[in-house]
Automatic annotation (TrEMBL):
InterPro entries: SusD-like_2, TPR-like_helical_dom_sf. Gene3D superfamilies: 1.25.40.390. The lineage of its organism: Bacteria, Pseudomonadati, Bacteroidota, Cytophagia, Cytophagales. Pfam families: SusD-like_2 (PF12771). SUPFAM superfamilies: TPR-like (SSF48452). It comes from the Bacteria. This is SusD/RagB family nutrient-binding outer membrane lipoprotein. Keywords: Lipoprotein, Signal.
Length: 480
């Protein structure tokens, strides 16, 4: 007989916990979901969905990818070694989603929980590499779960998402604040996550008949479709008040994060007026120029004194997003039509699909502009830095396509870091004042010290598979 725990869940609490700090350590990787019999599964789903914006607004990934600069505390952008623990993700969001499935009150809620779990597992493995997957969330029988290889995790996620799309029925999805129970939207989202996961493996499986291309084409061909319009975006919409957007919270009482000079220089070189949205002149929501734009990026990878001197001399330095795009109720984009469409352009350029590369590429850029309430001028597409000039089918257009993916993913830092590690584009110069021994851009998170003490055997097995050991310079499997 299952033990009963008092599990009081307050929706107002859930949305107020929407920053990256929500993913702090709440316990062990393998708490047993079977011990909880009374949770409101609707509240559990709402809780986790409110946190999804935190994964898509990860500032550390954005600093490694040089979307962002630090204006005061420069540790992350100088590549100091952090102690970041992933066990809280397991015992928090992943555990809550597993609890929904254990309660088994609604088939469709189980499927949604499964889809969200796969999205989170991808986020975790993209940061650390090998992590618990197949034995995670299994309770006391697997208190020290093995660390699956990243290849096993990716293939497991892709297979699980493929199956999930077929498992929906007519049951209700209560507590769904992302798609309000719209099954068609969840199917498109699952297919899109699967498509993007397949493309992330392009370094490992390059050929048009290999695993990555096969799974990419399978996701694209699924009758449920993929995200293709901005109305279909995977986005967390916050109502404001007690339930604030992550990007609002970034500047709520602080101002230590900036759009980097790397990013503003790129945007200037492209004459890209998305910069009018990407950079804001003030963190305040109440001043007369609250919605003013800025293209004054803060130098990347410099020590605190240099950054502070720059911002003091340039008070309208670019904050991340213009003020009206980071209000309490501003959305956080998780996966968009533009990102998916530009991924399709890349796949077509590899010869994986027969889609028209140039037309798909242009559509992806247009969708990005539209997402931000803008229209791309015709002249944008004719400039040499944007127009595709190489023949399709060989991957020769990758630099330009990847650069547009980088711009279109802003300000989703993990998406940009993944893109750069996978493609090498855009070309980035390491922090001038880097403090790590290699002085190179970070390729992965290191395992936290408590993982060595709580699951030593599994961690050491995972480390043995890393070329170079447990360092920031070692590359995760898909980056090799």
């Amino acid at each position: 007989m299952k033990k009963k725990l008092i599990y009081i869940l307050s929706t107002s609490l859930f949305f107020s916990l929407s920053s990256c700090d929500d993913l702090a350590d709440f316990g062990d990787t393998n708490k047993d979901p079977s011990v909880t019999t009374d949770p409101s599964i609707a509240a559990l789903l709402t809780n986790v969905e409110s946190h999804i914006g935190g994964y898509a607004s990860d500032s550390r990934g954005g600093m490694y990818a040089q979307y962002f600069s630090e204006t005061q505390y420069s540790d992350a952008s100088l590549y100091s070694i952090p102690q970041i623990d992933h066990t809280g993700i397991y015992s928090g969001d992943l555990y809550d989603l597993e609890n929904i499935k254990v309660q088994n009150q609604s088939n469709n809620m189980n499927v949604v929980a499964t889809i969200l779990q796969q999205y989170i597992f991808l986020n975790v493995t993209d940061k650390w590499g090998d992590v618990p997957y197949s034995e995670a969330l299994k309770g006391v029988d697997f208190s020290r779960p093995k660390y699956d290889t990243q290849e096993e995790i990716y293939k497991g996620v892709i297979a699980t998402l493929k199956t999930a799309v077929t498992q929906f029925d007519g049951s209700a999805i209560t507590g769904d604040v992302i798609f309000a129970g719209d099954v068609a939207q969840w199917k498109r989202t699952a297919n899109s996550i699967r498509l993007m996961a397949a493309l992330q493996l392009s370094k490992k499986f390059k050929g048009a008949s290999e695993y990555a291309a096969t799974e990419f084409k399978s996701a694209l061909a699924d009758p449920a479709g993929v995200i293709a319009t901005n109305a279909q975006n995977f986005v967390v919409k916050y109502p404001g008040g007690n339930f604030k957007s992550n990007w609002f919270n970034t500047y709520n009482g602080r101002k230590d994060l900036a759009e980097s000079a790397t990013m503003t220089t790129l945007m200037g070189s492209l004459s890209d007026n998305r910069q009018t949205v990407f950079g804001g002149a003030t963190e305040s929501q109440t001043t007369a120029n609250a919605n003013a734009s800025s293209n004054i990026g803060v130098p990347y990878g410099v020590v605190r004194a240099t950054a502070e001197a720059f911002t003091a001399a340039n008070p309208t330095w670019a904050r991340v997003l213009r003020g009206d795009k980071r209000t309490e109720s501003s959305p956080v984009y998780v996966l968009t039509a533009s990102q998916v469409t530009l991924a399709r352009a890349e796949a077509a350029d590899y010869g994986w699909t027969t889609e028209n590369v140039a037309a798909t590429y242009k559509l992806g850029i247009d969708l990005s502009y539209e997402q931000w309430g803008l229209t791309a001028p015709a002249s944008y597409f004719t400039q040499s830095a944007v127009a595709l000039s190489a023949s399709a089918g060989t991957g020769a257009n990758l630099a330009k396509i990847a650069t547009q993916q980088y711009v279109a993913s802003y300000p989703n830092g993990m998406a940009a870091w993944n893109l750069w590690r996978r493609t090498g584009y855009p070309a980035l110069t390491p922090a001038v004042n880097a403090v790590n021994s290699s002085r190179q851009i970070v390729r992965r998170y290191t395992y936290a010290s408590n993982e060595y003490t709580s699951n030593e055997v599994s961690v050491k097995e995972a480390i043995a598979r890393l070329t170079g050991g447990d360092t920031q310079d070692s590359r995760v499997w898909w980056d090799q």
